[in-house]
Design goal:
By secondary structure, the chain is mainly beta. The chain has a domain of 167 residues. It is built from 3 helices and 30 strands. The protein has a 5-stranded antiparallel β-sheet. A 4-stranded antiparallel β-sheet has the order 1-30-29-28, with no helix packed on it. A 4-stranded antiparallel β-sheet has the order 2-3-4-5, with no helix packed on it. The protein is globular.
Amino acid sequence: MRIWALCATLLATSTVTAAPNPLRRFDSAGAGFIDDAMALREDGNAVAFITTDGATTATLHLADIVGSEAKVPGAPPDATALHWLSPGRVLVVRGGEGGSTAQLFTASGADKAKLGPFGQLTLANVDGKRAIVTYTRSDKHGVEHTVVAYSPETLKPLKRRSWREDSEGQIKQGVTVLKPLWWAGGYTVLAALRAGEFDKARDMRRPDRYARLDSFSGKLLDENEVKDILAFTQVGLLRRDAPNQPVIAHYSDDHRRLLFTDGIDQYDVKMPRDIWKYDPNSLQWQTLDDKRAAVSLTVDPVNPDAVNRKKAEADEIDLVEVDRQGHAVRPLLRLAGEGRRATWKIAGNRLLLLRKGKGFDRGGVALEVYDLSSEPSVAKP
């Protein structure tokens, strides 16, 4: 009871901040709520989102940041992801017991062509061109992994490859076998482990080798000996739970450091404030390209420092950009949290932020678009 009373006192004395003005703001306009599936077009000039009652009806919104907004009825109320394929064309992914499916939508409505069922879907480069890639794992007759690449223009298949594990959980690559570990590059790269060969000259077995394969052709992209088996195992566990992510942001075991696992390397990321001031549950990140990633944390209003001062801190969102080569950190934006959780996506030097509903895990109450191309913006007291 005393702890709750203290929290209430601190929150009551917190400083209110004014956030930078968004370029555009969207709300549900009384049509239920804004669902979690949202997308910012690659050039940052248009957004796609869904308003729904969560059960029976849903509307797809295709809106220019500066300009018109098309409202397309008949969207699925169980959409899980949206992907811009080109200006005016959005792929809507929905879940289901038998797997996910995807359907193309335009301002005119839904297209007849569909993809699926599949396990996961993403956009990636295949043979140097943009493609839709699906991944499906089947356990019916042993473990089988299937990847399929589709044309974004026609939704017709371009490439397909299946990898079947043997009874020992290994796959064949040429005349040798490897143990699949995780997927990368939009499911176009398979990371695997090859058992070390026996070195007769030294009368010893060489260390295991980490290999990367082209998931469609099976071609070996590169291969290196695993030097630190303990560190490699830890990376493998992280990537098993977060597949197909070039960068994974996470706390150290003692929660005193923020770390990036980038490929199989790991390094520290320094946020604008002491790490213990943030709410660990607010951690979000996105890989932007081969050189950059973005990460955000939200200040915990009743962090230890605030408790000691008996004055709550504003729940500000700190968004930064991280140089993946030099590991330097550049502040991008500081926003007022407004007492709500938030999720976001970045494209075309713009941020699309969903303000979540209070007390509800699904959906939110508003979408906001911010410019990231200018000098870092901060909330002003």
